[in-house]
Structure formats: C-alpha cells, structure tokens
Write the structure tokens for this entry.
Amino acid sequence: MIETIYIEKKIKNHPRTKSILSKFKKARFIEIDRYGEIFNKRNQNFRIQKFSPDLILAHKESGLVLPAPDGFGIGNSKNFYFSHMYNCIYDCRYCFLQGMYSSANYVIFVNFEDFDNALEKVIEENKSSKITFFSGYDCDSLALENVTGFAKHILGLFRKYPDIDLEFRTKSLQKDPFISGKFMENIILAYSLMPEAMSSALDNKTPTIAKRIDIMTTLAAKGWKIGLRFDPLIHGKNWKKLYGELFEKVFNSVPLKSIHSVSFGALRFPKQMFKNITKLYPEEKLFSGPLSNNDGIVSYDHDIEEEMISFCQDITTRYVDKSKIFKCSV
Amino acid sequence: MNENCIIDSFSIRWVVALKEEAKTIIDHYKLSVIDGKSLFPVFKNVDDTHWLILSGIGRHNAAAATSYLYSISKASKSTAWINIGIAGCGKGNYGDLCLVDKISNNYGKNRYPMTMSRSAFSKMHLFTSDIPINNYSSQELIDMEGSAFYDIASKFTSNELICLMKVISDGPENNLKDLNKDRIIDLIKSNIINIKKVISYYENLSHFDFLRNKKPYLYTQIISRWHFSVTQKYQLENLLRRIKSFFPDNNVLEIIKDCEKGASVIDILDFKIKQSEVDWSNS
C-alpha cells in the first residue's frame, strides 16, 4: 500500500498525475520541486525503505531514450532502452537496482508524450537499421501497469511502426493491454525465468514461475510473441537437474512458434554495485556462491559460467532454432 | 562514525528542548542524569539504549545538542534519532500527536523525513521558526528546533531513522500565552501510549539495522587468536558471512583450528567456500 505520494509541482495538474492520484484515495500527497529531493539521496536506507516504499510522480527532462550497452540485444543491429519508471515493486535479491539506487521509492514519469517524441526521433535517425527498443531497464515494465497505463499508451505508438521491435521485460502477470487489443508482430513480451527452487528463495514478492509460464501460454495463444529470459543463471546444488526441469516445463507449455527469442546471462555485478548489495544483504545465500572479481565485474568463475551457458544453450537448441538464442553479456 | 559502538540490540537518541517536554519520557524510560560536567543536561537508561539531551530553545541549541549527544553517547549508524516537543498548529486538535513528513524554514531547502508506516497518527508539515509565531494560518506545525535537529541527525544516520513528533499545544483556538509548565507536562504525558508506539517502531528499525551491520558471530573470537592485516580482516568478515550458508559455526572453528597464521585462515575458508554449492532446495 502506498502511503505517501510526492508530486513534482511542474506536473501536479497533468491529467496523468490526476488519474494516478485518483487510484490512491488514502495516500497523503506532498508537493516537491524535483524528484531528486526525495529519490536516491545519500543518507537513505534502501532496505528500510523497501518495507514501505513511497511513490514519486515526476517529469523526465532528458535521457528519455538511450542506446543499450553493447552485448544487450536480441538480433537487431541497433538497441535502445527507455524507462518510464525507476525501481520495482518486486524485491529480487540479484536485482542491480538495489545496488544502483540508495532509494527504494518508485518514481513514475508521467510525461509519456515526451517518450513518444524521443522514440520517434530515434526511429527517424535510424531509418536504415533494424532497431529493438527495450522497456523496463530500470524497472519491471509491466508490474505497475494498472497504475501507469504506460504499456497501453506506448503500444499505440508502435502500431505505427510495425518494423520496429519493442520488448517489455517483466515478471508480472499483467495481460490487460495485450488481451484487449489485436496482437502485434513487433512486440516481444519477455519473461524472466529461473528454476522454482531458486525463484522462491530469490524472487521476493513476484508471481511464481508456474504462474509466469501460465501467462506466457495465455498470451502466446492470443498470438503475442514471447521472449524467454534466463538471466541471471543461478548456480547451486543440482543446478543441471533444476534447469533441465525448467526447460522441459517451459518448452512443453509455450508453443514453440510463439517464441521470439531466448537469452541467457550469467549472474554478474559491477564491483561497486556488488559491494552495495552485499552491504544491504550481508548474509544472503546468493552471495555465498563461487563468485569472484574479474576486471571489475563480480561473477561466477569463468568455467562455471561457460558450463552453465553451454548446458542451457544445448538443451534449448533441441526446441528453438539457434538463430533465436542469444547470450547477454552486459 | 564511532568505531566502538556498544549497542547490542537497538539504540535511541532523544533531543528535547524543554525539561517539561522531557519529564514524561525521562520517567517512563527510567533515564537518569549522567555524572560529570556536561555542556547540556544528558540522561540515559541503565542499558545505554536510550539517551536524552535537553537542548534548550532554538535552532542553534538544537544543532549543538544533537551533535554533542552523538559525540558522547556512542551512537552508531543504526541509532534512531527522535525529536519530540510541543508545537503550534493551524489546523490540528489541541493535544494530538503528529508525525512530521516535511520540514522547512526560512533559510533553505525542504527536508522530507520518512514517517512511521501504517500508523494512525496525523502527518503534517513543520515550519521551524527563529521567533515565536502566533499567526497560524500559513503553516501546519510550527516549532523552533526541528529543521536544525534534522540537519544534524541526518549526518549520523539515514533519513528512515530520524523521527520528529509534535504534540499540538497552541493554535487559533488555544492561545500561546496560556501555556505553562504543567500544561506542557500534561500534553506529553497524555500521549505517552502513542509515543511508546512510535518509539517501539523505531526500536525495531534500529535493531533490524543493527543486526545487518553486526560482525559475524565468530569474527571477534578469530581475530583475537590470529593476526590479520586490515585487508585480511575485511576478507575474513566476508568469508565468515559466506561460509554460514554451508557450515555451522562449530564446524568453522574445526576447519581453521590447525591454521598457523591469519593468512591460512583466509585461504582455508576461501577454499571451503569454493568447494561448496548453495542448496536452493532448503531455502
């Protein structure tokens, strides 16, 4: 339950602000000048804030659409990302957001139309390239859809550009914006997955893996393309058996023709981010594993990482064409 | 930050302007004045978990007293800082306890303390003034210390562990001139159950944060037996946290018992961790 909503003065009369506020009748509203007054300040305690995060409604001034880092892509030559929101309602122990921000409050940027303009500008500038946009790099792109309506809004824009791909990455069970309209060939609904035993220990407050598989199956039946994101791959006792069972379940549930792409990524953190996260959760089992620092990136030892990725790729190629399988190295 | 903090559960520091505002707190939490010469009157309980300072009126006193209490009370990053007092108010009811979620003054930026979640208490904005104000129309709560207390306390702890609570003492219907010592004591006393609820919340937060920052159980025992450099101590702390997922504390002592040097302790713990696999099935 959101108890306090901070609202930038600049957007206090924005229709979208009013619409969002109308959904939180019991919350206390506080006007602020800029979201930076509340969000990500130095003397904040992420873990305590996470008990009861507040909401901040803001106007995003710049950096609305950014080039994705190298190694982040699913086949197209150019990749960009954008985030209408910072932070996430879920609490996954491997999530980089907890190491990136000192604040667990949610920021929602209400100026969606500026995102539209920025996206169209990038599309115009890259007419000769195949582009993929990724929504939800700094958040889960669908988890708060019932509050923001962002996916519904942005689908309207991408209907105009059928050759431009857009990926929503999520763990949520949101289906409304997709069920209510006709499916779109250029939209990828990508779900993060890991074996249930690991997910129940690490994916706090998220829908179970079984429920995620159910929703993928439902949306695939409506024609939507599905992305499978096994990222991060988690090491542990019996990991081969656990991943083997997961792949069997996923590939026997989701129609193979609906699978747009499958990607794998090893568990990895920039060194400073890892330091921040382990300070927050010093006794977390995840960080007891065989991790080491390799050139500023904390990850599983190289041999383990390679073994995991090749094991997963080998099984996946039994079901999905190699051209649809990607390794995420960011 | 104080290195040798002695809290072993939770830690609360009170900054209160007047002795009449503090009387009920001192009585309820069984605080006694500390011996020796002190710049401000300071009280603490037997366990050293609650300390209270009487700052006197005004921003400068509040800032100096908060700073002074930090330096003499071995407060840590996990300490919760509380400012309680009476306040004028343009809209609330006389005698109500309010939590402060926004602080302003005439000199600069606004501050936004996080408030106790899921509480029934009113949340209000506080304006800290340098002079007594009896025009209540433009502000919610009015005091003379809050912003300075917050500015200093926020250097010692996180925003989430700072609490300002005010009891409404005067307003359009209740003249400031009618306030006297007995009425101030009564205003706080009549809210002691509410105050206890708020303090219990901050005791829990402080305890939670203390446990997070606590050194692993075997750490002190091991560094007293072997010599470790500063870097090795840091490595040891990390390794002890990690190895807990695989071995109980007794087994860890067994594993390292034949080590001759600190470096060998580090090596063997590291080796054991690398040999182990996290078991996700019993999470």
About this structure: Residues 192-213 of chain B form the longest helix (22 residues).
